[in-house]
Design brief:
Its cofactor is FAD; FMN. The protein is an alpha/beta fold and 680 residues long. 39% of the residues lie in helices and 18% in strands. The strands form 5 sheets. Strands 1, 2, 3, 4, 5, 6 and 7 form a 7-stranded mixed beta sheet that branches. Strands 14-11-18-9-10-15 form a 6-stranded antiparallel beta sheet, with helices on one face. The chain has a 5-stranded parallel beta sheet with strand order 21-20-19-22-23, sandwiched between helices.
């Protein structure tokens, strides 16, 4: 075209030139026509393609389906539910309570559903009033130092930022906590208070369950007053007695390929054979145990140090984080349950949810064998809760045993007392109950449906990733005790870990694990002094802290005073990490090592006594040095006693009254200068 344009512009061309130009023009016209035809064909082709793609547009819309599914309102409307019970659960108990409450609803002509807040858009709460006789119940556990559970974190964040009008929402909250912790039931209290602030209507008072006491009784007591309040509010009545309704149906597989059968995996099938990061609670990493040594030199207990190899896992951790491990139940307990119930434990089966709309298709990964379920998925060592006893009662052929089970599951004072003494205080697990009630022989599939899930166990990491980037260290004590019935009960995880001995092929030394982030952190500035208080296995995170301070010092950083208060029973019996601590002290990393041996003299000496002895130095470090305080270990006694000691020190040297001293320490906590990593 450019050439054509140029030809028209030149009138002085000679005849020969003109002829040549015409030849050229002809050929260019051919090119133009061919290009035009090609262009038209290409346009037609793509135009036709688009037309063909039009019918496929609805398929593209399926991409947004998960957004619609995240609306619990739509799901409730679709399935005819009017009560939703959300749970914030770290160990499975809050989820269990939520399931029980949602199941209760049918007795009052209502329909309930338990829901994980992580799976739904909670901003839809303002639409719940669109459903007749609707109610939202929240079973909220508090984790750590007043924190929400992992699955309730997004809900908590939303509540903090929300300015939604929830005036049409009716709600009730049951909190699960432990009074030995500083922030007892913080999450339950916050949800209850915040929902009211946003205009929601509380139809029953906040329930506060205490796991240090009797959480099951607290829940039953709240529940038996909660439902009458619901009835009064909605003008409904109970339609009958509590009845046993199966949630899952049994399917036995006789010809299933073993490649499709779960053998202990937590999420994806064959995930233990084909490991893929990132690793978390639903996809744990199989770490090899490279070291397992006994730490104590004497005594009845077994204290151990384990090292888990995390090479090539891409797992990252910081000093103070927790490692979660998934243990396995003792095979002898599993076999005894199989024998008592006359079951072939290697039968492959699935338990399928009868509610097809439920997000939870199975109570644990299916298909699997009864042996795998009882070994890796179900809690068979803790005393069962009252709802399990109630459901099992129908299978006791002896009327006396049946009545006893029903009585323990009732809300009557006599029944609660019997449950407390016969089950809780006697620490009877499901095997002990089956042994002590010869006529009770439930179908094993119903038992598997009722038992709670076996939970991961958390341990404070006893290493620094700066020094040990490819391994995570654990410090633990095996749990073993005799019950009132004369049985020997063993802690599931610690006894399982005890037997994880490194071997050459690594087959018997694999531990499914993942890391849970913690707020228990060293100060940002290495020059800030630290005061660490951790008797017994409470020393674990401080081994990591000291390793890290030593590493920082090697890097040429200015490292502040590093003070440790450690306690054990006897110096020659259970002084953990003695050699390491002595070395760190000689190197000048550990500036003070204060050890309390509680049983080496007539009068018992604990860490709080050593704190009082050095109170002037403590006050100077806290007040002038802006030291950070860390407490790790027993929450029931030690942590409380240590905190009271700090109140005394602050009161004496800060010239403050007791309430002022308490306020001073609380402010240290708020500022992140007084941190706790405790358990009960």
């Amino acid at each position: 075209l450019t050439v054509m344009g140029e030809a028209r512009m030149d009138p002085n061309l000679s005849p020969p030139d003109s002829t040549a130009q015409q030849d050229s023009l002809f050929s260019m016209t051919d090119v133009f026509l061919i290009s035009l035809i090609t262009g038209l064909f290409t346009y037609w082709f793509f135009f036709r393609k688009k037309k063909e793609e039009v019918p496929d547009l609805p398929k593209m819309q399926t991409v947004v389906a998960p957004v619609r599914d995240s609306s619990f309102i739509e799901k409730m409307k679709k399935t005819g539910r009017n009560i939703v019970v959300f749970y914030g659960s770290q160990t499975g108990t809050a989820e269990e309570f939520a399931n029980r409450l949602s199941k209760d609803a049918h007795r009052y002509g209502l329909r309930g559903m338990a829901a994980d807040p992580e799976e739904y858009d909670l901003s839809d709460l303002n639409r719940l009033s669109e459903i007749d006789k609707s109610l939202a119940v929240f079973c909220m556990a508090t984790y750590g130092e007043g924190d929400p559970t992992d699955n309730a974190q997004d809900f908590y964040d939303w509540l903090q930022e929300a300015d939604t009008d929830l005036s049409g929402l009716r709600f009730a909250v049951f909190g699960l906590g432990n009074k030995t912790y500083e922030h007892f039931n913080a999450m339950g209290k916050y949800v209850d208070k915040r929902l009211e602030e946003l205009g929601a209507q509380r139809i029953f008072e906040l329930g506060l369950g205490d796991d240090d006491g009797n959480l099951e009784e607290d829940f039953i007591t709240w529940r038996e007053q909660f439902w009458p309040a619901v009835c009064e509010h909605f003008g409904v009545e109970a339609t009958g007695e509590e009845s046993s309704i199966r949630q899952y149906e049994l399917v036995v597989h006789t010809d299933v390929s073993m490649n499709k059968v779960y053998t202990g995996e937590m999420g994806r099938l064959k995930s233990y054979e084909n490991q893929k990061p990132p690793f978390d609670a639903k996809n744990p990493f199989l770490a090899k145990v490279t070291e397992n040594r006994k730490l104590n030199e004497g005594g009845e207990r077994h204290l151990m140090h384990l090292e888990l190899d995390i090479s090539n896992s891409k797992i990252r951790y910081e000093s103070g984080d927790h490692v979660a491990v998934y243990p396995a139940n003792d095979s002898s307990l599993v076999n005894q349950i199989g024998e008592i119930l006359g079951t072939d434990l290697d039968t492959v089966m699935s338990l399928n949810n009868l509610d097809e709309e439920s997000n939870k298709k199975h109570p644990f990964p299916c298909p699997t064998s009864y042996r795998t379920a009882l070994t890796y998925y179900l809690d068979i060592t803790n005393p069962p809760r009252t709802n399990v006893l109630y459901e099992l009662a129908q299978y006791a052929t002896d009327t006396g045993e049946q009545e006893r089970l029903r009585k323990m599951a009732s809300s009557a004072a006599e029944g609660k007392a019997l449950y407390l003494s016969w089950v809780v205080e006697a620490r009877r697990n499901i095997l002990a109950i089956l042994q002590d009630m010869p006529s009770l022989r439930p179908p094993i599939d119903h038992l598997c449906e009722l038992l709670p899930r076996l939970q991961a166990r958390y341990y404070s990491i006893a290493s620094s990733s700066k020094v040990h980037p490819n391994s995570i260290h654990i410090c633990a004590v095996t749990v073993e005790y005799e019950t009132k019935t004369g049985r020997l009960n063993k802690g599931v995880a610690t006894n399982w870990l005890k037997n994880k001995v490194p071997d050459q092929n690594g087959s018997s030394s694999l531990v499914p694990m993942y890391v849970r982030k913690s707020q228990f952190r060293l100060p940002f500035k290495p020059s800030t002094p630290v005061i660490m208080i951790g008797p017994g296995t409470g020393i674990a995170p401080f081994v990591g802290f000291i390793q890290e301070r030593a590493w920082l010092k090697q890097q040429g950083k200015e490292v502040g005073e590093t003070v440790l208060y450690y306690g054990c029973r006897r110096e020659r019996e259970d002084y953990l990490y003695r050699e390491e601590l002595t070395r760190f002290q000689k190197e000048g990393v550990l500036t003070q090592l204060n050890v309390a041996f509680s049983r080496d003299q007539a009068e018992k000496v604990y860490v709080q006594h050593l704190l009082k002895k050095n109170k002037e130095n403590i006050w100077k470090l806290v007040n002038e040095g802006m030291a950070h305080i860390y407490v790790c270990g027993d929450a029931r006694n030690m942590a409380r006693d240590v905190q009271n000691t700090f109140y005394e020190i602050v009161s004496e040297f800060g010239n403050m009254s007791q309430p002022q001293a308490v306020d001073y320490v609380k402010k240290l906590m708020t500022k992140g200068r007084y941190s706790l990593d405790v358990w009960s």
